[in-house]
């Protein structure tokens, strides 16, 4: 495992044990047995690490699944369930960072990257204009993020499969019916 990945994993462990707000760069360096100079050669600060963890855990996996399975109707539940499974597999970590506020919050990062993913997913949708596409991608991205946030805050009362099925039924089916088939 490369230093960069070790830093990510050790930061996750520190966050699980201490909470994100209490974790410092010094703690990360001590846990990883690296100098601050080495740390800063990879990351700007602990918020940069948080973003890279999200990219690694959720966004890269999501993009890979979209590339692998495409946008076919039958594959959407597989993609959704895997995304929720990745969050659930790291539930202690995500429970600790869910209340991080501001531009470096889980919510902000997910929204930013989900908008990019939805632009990719919706590339073939016949939308009347750019403004409608912007609002459409924001609508689905923000609903995804808010559902994840509620799921985490509620203590993961649903299984990844259940939450994926719900989102599939509520949002994805409506998207498919209204944009892929009706226009």
Automatic annotation (TrEMBL):
This protein's UniProt keywords: DNA-binding
Domain of life: Bacteria
UniProt xrefs under Pfam families: TetR_C_8 (PF14278), TetR_N (PF00440)
The keyword tRNA-binding belongs to this UniProt entry's keyword annotation: no
Keyword presence, DNA-binding: yes
Segments of the chain annotated as binding DNA: 24-43
Domain HTH tetR-type, residue spans: 1-61
GO terms assigned for molecular function: DNA binding
Classification via InterPro entries: Homeodomain-like_sf (IPR009057), HTH-type_Tx_Regulator (IPR050624), HTH_TetR (IPR001647), TetR_C_Firmicutes (IPR039532)
PANTHER family in the cross-refs: ACREF/ENVCD OPERON REPRESSOR-RELATED (PTHR43479), TETR-FAMILY TRANSCRIPTIONAL REGULATOR (PTHR43479:SF7)
Protein name per the record: Regulatory protein, tetR family
Organism: Thomasclavelia cocleata
